[in-house]
């Protein structure tokens, strides 16, 4: 899978940008604030979701200079070689949608697509960013998001499932809270309907995560060169039920738990079990230590291991390798690990976009990578050879 052409309009710092890509490896270097991560973020909108910054749609449109009218319109267009061959994709926010409720529209080959699912059926992308360094030490929600993105590459319906689940959870909770504050009795039949959706989607989400972990574990257990072997697990009540009883029984228990927790959920302190409570637990196999207790460098190496293993598995199962967006990855690795990473990406045949402030780190890719320098939202193609010592 590969991006062949990328066109940005009023996207972050870019008023307009066109790039033609003809190499599997793309390196982008430039000073802090030049616009490197913004470019990777643009590519991350070619798959479902909120992109690699998990940004609000209203933050993405380019802010003009002093006194400029704020715009809400932004767009990313691309020619992509995906699972079904080459297609044209456009996504962004138009001026027509209401400001208070912006929606990211998607067009494929010129025709509007219903929702973002069509993106996931054609393309998958994985990313690693400096922000993710704290993934194993911060709250579980970041780890769940990371895990769900690993699932998307194998199960494009997962994104829609998560959305439907979250919508039903939000509606149930506002219904219960209205009842608690205004005394508007919640319609029990409607609560039943919502909880049925929650049970169905919630169990499907947990099952998809478990299925991914079961498949990914053997690949992660191998380790890749200097990147450590890892063992993955899903930690949660619902996940435990699914591992020990038939799915229908787990559904019954989940449904009963929802009904029993209506009273507690009324006061906004969700006692409900479900996929929104699970944690993605990663263990460094050789050290037999949870990832959160590993050194910063080891945690980074574990993340790279998992992403590479996922890419390798997608290549085996789907016959296509996801696009890799690796922000600032080279700077954080010693030379041996850096070379091993470059070698593995090339062995996978992945299209990888890598950023950094120091072009000399990418010199070993001279002749292989298409290199761009980024300065003040201008992107210029250059030879990496020029940076060789
Ligand atoms: N909506 C926006 N409109 C205009 N500029 C924006 C918008 N959002 C972010 N920017 C600016 O874009 C610039 C480039 O950001 P980006 O994160 O791409 O830099 P970078 O090259 O990755 O830098 P670093 O090396 O520090 O990571 C920043 O100065 C940022 O403030
Ligand atoms: Mg950056």
What oligomeric state best describes the polypeptide chains here? single chain
Largest sheet: 6 strands, antiparallel
Taken in chain order, the helices and strands follow as EEEHEEEEHEHHHEHHHEEHEHEEE
The assigned structural class equals: alpha/beta
Radius of gyration: 22 Å
Share of helix, binned: 25-40%
How many helical stretches? 10
What share of the residues does DSSP label as strand, in percent?
Answer: 15-25%
Task: Please tell me the overall pLDDT.
Answer: 93
The CATH C-level class name of the largest domain: Alpha Beta
Q: What is the spatial order of strands in the main beta sheet?
A: 2-1-4-5-6-7
Q: Count all strands and give the number.
A: 15
CATH superfamily of the largest domain: P-loop containing nucleotide triphosphate hydrolases
Domain tally: 2
Using the 3D structure, state the CATH architecture of the largest domain. 3-Layer(aba) Sandwich
